[in-house]
Specification:
It is built from 14 helices and no strands. It is an all-alpha fold.
């Protein structure tokens, strides 16, 4: 029987990892969004490249380490005790953030981009550890709840880091305040990591392959098994769709409504709160399915259909709008006829996303062999990064062809119907999440 996942927050086998992950995700997004705002409004003169191109480059620069170093990160996480590796990564975060503070104070664009890359490297090495360690500290019946808490906390941290970094950095005294937060969160994350219980190595005898190309090819080939592919593709599709929506919130606000940045933040809050609720509710849904003798992932293909249907509904909502001739704020936006319909659409889509993705993470952990679980997560990180890049390329292609935001989100959602059919046929009863 699955108890409430919130009981895990009182357990040392979970809470320190939860706090470590939350603080790290907050710090990543605090720095990234402060940098995006600085590039847009202050640092563009240091580069001959247009600010919007530099912002896009910065996003890709953060993702690049996932392609380069995921293979070695997964091998290291399987070879050595995990809690010790996490502590070393958190020490590295303190050093990286110290360099980031120096870059903020100096206003040096290239130093800040180097720090962004190093943050991507750190995240690459932390990912296989945080998801690989959960099955060692939680029993199988707790995995959905634990992943739900981690997922909800991650998106809340993304939201808070995005808002705080974007809003504070240009204010008077913003640079010292953001700098202090970066260092404080890094130190607090290290302190929390000190309390994570030991997690023995899954494969202490493996020899890490430091050849980036061959290591990555081997990593992806060994992870491409019939048992792992459904969850891997399913999770990566979630990040494709999520990246598409998150990237289009500014365009949705400005191009469709002619609304200001407050509406962008409102969309972001609605979306993140919905995903967090869906992630937390997934434990209840899976528990009820298992108690009735059903596969704990039975609802996942249905949620994929819901994501497609809601994306099409958003197309109808946006297509029926008349754009304001003057720039409007949040209160004026909420007074428009379609505002609450769109808000409900985004919220329900996000809830469906949380219900959809959390059981897939738990399934991937359960299905992964214990001696290569971290490498399985590392392969997932490569796939996630690839799908997010494809999301950006798809967006550029759609806009280049003369279509709009509504067409992009509807098209992305409809593509998910093929995935729903794939998951319906591949998520078998013998892959049920156990009670």
């Amino acid at each position: 029987m699955r108890d409430s996942e919130f009981k895990l927050l009182g357990a040392r086998r979970f809470l320190p990892l939860f706090l470590t992950q939350f603080l790290g995700a907050f710090n990543d997004n605090l720095f990234k969004n402060a940098l995006v705002i600085l590039i847009t409004y202050r640092l563009a003169s240091q580069s001959p490249v247009r600010p919007e191109i530099m912002v896009t480059f910065a996003a890709g620069f953060f993702i690049l380490p996932f392609f380069l170093f995921s293979a070695i990160a997964g091998e290291m996480a399987d070879k050595w005790e995990k809690s010790g590796l996490i502590r070393r990564i958190k020490v590295a975060e303190i050093l990286i953030m110290t360099l980031g503070v120096a870059g903020l104070v100096a206003g040096d664009l290239w130093m800040l981009l180097a720090v962004l890359f190093l943050m991507g490297v750190q995240s690459t090495f932390f990912g296989p550890l945080k998801y690989g360690i959960l099955p060692q500290h939680l029993n199988k019946a707790e995995l959905v709840g634990g992943n739900g808490l981690i997922g909800a906390a991650t998106f809340v941290a993304i939201l808070l880091g995005t808002i705080v970094g974007g809003v504070m950095i240009l204010k008077t005294g913003g640079t010292p305040l953001v700098s202090a937060l970066l260092i404080a969160c890094a130190v607090a994350g290290y302190a929390a990591s000190r309390l994570i219980p030991d997690a023995p190595a899954g494969a202490p005898d493996i020899r890490p392959n430091f050849n980036i190309l061959s290591g990555t090819v081997t990593l992806m080939r060994e992870a491409a098994t019939p048992a792992l592919l459904p969850a891997t593709f399913g999770i990566s599709w979630f990040w494709f769709l999520g990246a598409t929506y998150l990237a289009q919130f500014p365009n949705m606000a400005k191009a469709v409504f002619n609304a200001n940045e407050d509406v962008v933040v409102f969309f972001l809050v609605t979306f993140v709160v919905g995903i967090a609720i869906g992630a937390l509710a997934s434990n209840l849904v899976v528990s009820r399915l298992v108690r009735t003798g059903m596969d704990g992932t039975r609802h996942v293909p249905l949620m994929a259909v819901a994501l497609a249907a809601l994306s099409v509904e958003i197309w109808f909502t946006l297509s029926g709008l008349d754009r304001s001739e003057t720039l409007i704020g949040l209160s004026a936006f909420l007074g428009t006829p379609m505002a609450w319909r769109l808000t409900a659409d985004l919220f329900l889509l996000a809830v469906a996303g949380g219900l959809y993705v959390v059981p897939l993470y738990a399934l991937l952990q359960v299905q992964s062999p214990a001696d290569r679980r971290a490498r399985t997560i590392a392969a997932l990180n490569v796939m996630n990064a690839l799908f997010m890049v494809l999301s950006a390329l798809a967006g550029m292609a759609v806009f280049a062809a003369g279509y709009g935001v509504a067409d992009l989100v509807a098209g992305a959602g409809v593509l998910g119907l093929g995935l729903a059919l794939y998951l319906r046929s591949r998520l078998k009863a013998d892959q049920a999440l156990p009670e």
